[in-house]
Design a protein that fits this description.
This protein is an alpha/beta fold and 339 residues long. The chain has nine helices and eleven strands.
C-alpha cells in the first residue's frame, strides 16, 4: 500500500493531505484571514502564517487519516508556481520530513495539481474520471489556459492569456466597485440578482485560443469612473447589474475560446479546474453548452477547486508509480512552467 503525505503552500492556504494508493483519506486546509484588511495577499504575512500553520495542519491530516508517520511512503510538495516565500515553507518542511524519516520526495507543479483534482477519489463516493484525451479550461487568479490533456503526464497548453488571468479580472473588477477582498465570490453572489445584459463591455481581439483580460479591466475602470462622476451613487444603485454584466462578459470570453478549442481538436471531453471553476455562473453556462453541444463535462467538487493538498497528493501518487522522485537539492520555483 502506497501512503503519501502532500503539502500545498503556493499562496495563502496551508494544506496537507493523505492518500493511500489513489484514495483520499484526509485533506486539511488552514485559511489566512489576515489578508482581507489589505485587499489582497501580502507575501511576507503569508509566509509567516504558513510557518505557524504547517505543523498543526500536517498533524491534523495524519490523525484524521488514521495514519502514523512510520506509515508514510513518500512526501510530496508544491514546488511552484506561486509566492516564493510561501513555497519555501512547504518545500523546506517536506525536505526535512523526508530526510528525518528516510522517505523519498516528490515535487509537484501546482497547475498539474489543479488538473489532477479531476481524479480525486473519496471512500463511499461515486466518481468518474475524464477520458484521455480531454480539454481542460484551467482558470485561477494567476493563470488562464486551455490544456490538451493527452495522458496523466502528457499535457499541451494550446491557449493561454497574453496578460492577466480571469481570476484577476474578477478580483480587480470587484475592487473597482468597492467590494472587499476576495471580490470574485462576491461578484458571483451578486450576479445572481442582476441583469447580465444591463451593461456592455467590449471583448478583446486576440487569437482564436488566447485570452486577454487587461483591456477589459481598463474598460470597466473607465466606465465606472465616468458614470460615478455623473452620479456618485452609480455603483451602489447598480451593483447587482454591474456584477452580472462583468461576470457575463468574462464567462463569454472563456467559453468563446473553449468552443474554438473543441472545434479545432474535435474533442468533446471537457473539464474545468482552478479557483474560478467554483464560479456558479461559469458552471451553469458550461452545463448549458454541454447539453447543446453533446459534451462530456467534468468539474471538480467545489472544495477541490481552490488550492488544496488533495490535488497534490493525487498527482504524487501517479508520480510515485513511475518512480519520479526528486533529490534534497530541489528548490522552490515561483515561476515554474508546465512540466
Amino acid at each position: 500500500m502506497i501512503t503519501i503525505l502532500a503539502i500545498e503552500t503556493s499562496c495563502d492556504d496551508t494544506s496537507a493531505a493523505i492518500v493511500q494508493d489513489d484514495l483520499l483519506l484526509s485533506n486539511i486546509t488552514a485559511n489566512q484571514k489576515i489578508h482581507k484588511k489589505y485587499g489582497g495577499v501580502v507575501p511576507e504575512l503569508a509566509s509567516r502564517a504558513h510557518q505557524a500553520n504547517i505543523v498543526p495542519v500536517v498533524d491534523t491530516a495524519l490523525k484524521e487519516a488514521g495514519v502514523k508517520i512510520s506509515d508514510i511512503s513518500a512526501i510530496a510538495f508544491t514546488r511552484g508556481p506561486g509566492l516564493l516565500g510561501s513555497l519555501l515553507v512547504g518545500v523546506s518542511f517536506a525536505k526535512g520530513f523526508a530526510l528525518a524519516n528516510n522517505i523519498p520526495l516528490i515535487n509537484i507543479n501546482h497547475l498539474h495539481g489543479h488538473i489532477s483534482a479531476l481524479f480525486i477519489k473519496e471512500k463511499g463516493k461515486a466518481h468518474k474520471d475524464p477520458k484521455f484525451p480531454f480539454l481542460t479550461l484551467l482558470v485561477s487568479g494567476g493563470h488562464t489556459q486551455i490544456v490538451l490533456v493527452k495522458s496523466f503526464f502528457k499535457r499541451e497548453i494550446i491557449g493561454e492569456t497574453i496578460d492577466d488571468a480571469a481570476g484577476e479580472a474578477f478580483d480587480k473588477s470587484a475592487k473597482i466597485m468597492g467590494l472587499p477582498y476576495p471580490g470574485g465570490p462576491l461578484i458571483d453572489k451578486y450576479a445572481k440578482l442582476g441583469n447580465p445584459y444591463a451593461f456592455s463591455f467590449s471583448k478583446p481581439k486576440t487569437g482564436k485560443l488566447d485570452f486577454s483580460f487587461s483591456g477589459l479591466k481598463t474598460a470597466i475602470l473607465y466606465f465606472i469612473r465616468d458614470e460615478a462622476t455623473k452620479n456618485p451613487d452609480f455603483v451602489k444603485e447598480n451593483l447587482y447589474d454591474l456584477c452580472a454584466s462583468v461576470q457575463y462578459t468574462i464567462i463569454d470570453i472563456l467559453l468563446d475560446k473553449l468552443k474554438n478549442a473543441v472545434q479545432k481538436t474535435g474533442i468533446n471531453e471537457i473539464a474545468i479546474a482552478g479557483g474560478v471553476s467554483a464560479n456558479s455562473g461559469l458552471r451553469e453556462t458550461l452545463a448549458k453548452e454541454t447539453e447543446q453541444n453533446n459534451w462530456e463535462l467534468h468539474i471538480p467538487e467545489f472544495k477541490y477547486t481552490t488550492d488544496n493538498a488533495a490535488m497534490i497528493a493525487v498527482t504524487a501518487y501517479h508520480k510515485y508509480l513511475k518512480g519520479e522522485f526528486t533529490s534534497q537539492d530541489i528548490t522552490a520555483n515561483a515561476r515554474l512552467k508546465e512540466d
